[in-house]
Amino acid sequence: MLTKDYHEVPKVRDKWSWLYIEHGIIDREDKAIAVHDLRGLTPVPCDNLSVLLLGPGTSITHAAITTLADCGCLVVWSGEQGVRFYASGSGATRKASHLLRQVKLWANESSRLYVVRRMYEFRFPEKPDPSLTLEQIRGMEGVRVRDAYFNASRDTGVPWNGRNYDRRDWKNADPVNKALSVANSCLYGISHAAIVAAGYSPAIGFVHTGKQLSFVYDVADLYKTELTIPLAFQTVAEVDRNLNREVRIRCRDMFHRHGLLKRIVKDIHGILGATPPEDADDDFDADPAKPGGLWDPVTGECAGGVSYGEGGDKEEE
Q1: What pLDDT, in 10s, does the model give residues 49-99?
Q2: For residues 248 and 187, what is the distance between their CA atoms, to the nearest angstrom?
Q3: Torsion 81-33-69-18 (CA) sign
Q4: How far, in Å, CA of 251 to CA of 82, rounded?
């Protein structure tokens, strides 16, 4: 049920992962949204949805976008099968404290390097030797990923000739490369939703840089060897028709089974050392139109929404 009180909307950790739609019309239906396609009308309770991926052939009304925004659901306009990202809407929070911390860590070379090392350390069962250079850790990461591909190929019997496909020639990619691309695009979608919902920027990456989704790639890389690589190989070994659709369905079920949204938000907070949103004491999300504080070079921040007169006196507006 739609509500204007953002504290009543389910937290991102409790939501479903994502829904991909192509060749359909999305409109508001009562206090939710509905998809109109060749199969008829399908209602979607969007207050429990974290990200809606809109593929080719979709149209969405202004009323549906408003409903999704009120429910804190991120809307992403994507390419076929969700493998390309074109644009996105807003997520669940209006707070800026986590974004400001992200920027502060990124803007300082020492703290950025510290975060990069923590992101790499996150991926290994044992913490790498602190004396290793970043280049050496990247080499270890390359070996780890290659081993993940090798092990998945060995365990499933699916041949592996390397990660290689041409975006302009998608149909001629081998099945396992297609499956990996689709699975990773699903992982990017849920990572993007978690990042935005938790109040971070998807563009301010630490390991990756220069793209609007750099931080999405940073976060998604934390989980690929555990989740999407084994799933892609297993699906290719078991399915010979509708491979892309089957990969998306299996990703959806696996993300839910692993509680991935909850994990991503918790892991980002842990890596960046931020306060979890449920512990933050502010009400920005309860009133989307409420302005924040005012920056001050002495106090750092002072109250907004007041009229400051001469001599430092202030009057309530």
Answers
A1: 777 888 888 999 999 988 888 887 878 787 665 556 666 666 555 567 889
A2: 10
A3: negative
A4: 13
pLDDT digits (tens, 9 = 90+) for 248-258: 889 988 988 88
**Residue 121 burial by CB count (10 A; 0-12/13-18/19+): exposed, middle or buried?**
middle
* Cβ pair 215, 201 in contact under 8 A: yes
Report residue 210's pLDDT band, with 50, 70 and 90 as the boundaries: very high
Query: Closest by alpha carbon to 17, among 200, 254, 288, 276?
Result: 254
Predicted TM-score (pTM) of the model is 0.69
* Residue 147 tokens, joined: 């081993």
Which DSSP string corresponds to 30-97? TTEEEEEETTEEEEE-GGGEEEEEE-TTEEE-HHHHHHHHHTT-EEEEE-GGG-SEEEE---S----H
* CA distances in angstroms from 149 to 180, 224, 301, listed in the order given: 10, 10, 50
Q: Residue 142 corresponds to which amino acid?
A: G
Q: Give per-residue pLDDT as tens, 175-194.
A: 999 999 999 988 998 888 78
Beta strands in the chain (DSSP E): 16-21, 24-29, 32-37, 40-44, 49-54, 58-60, 74-78, 85-88, 294-296, 300-302, 306-308, 314-316
pLDDT of 316 > 50? The answer is no
Between strands 74-78 and 40-44, the pairing is unpaired
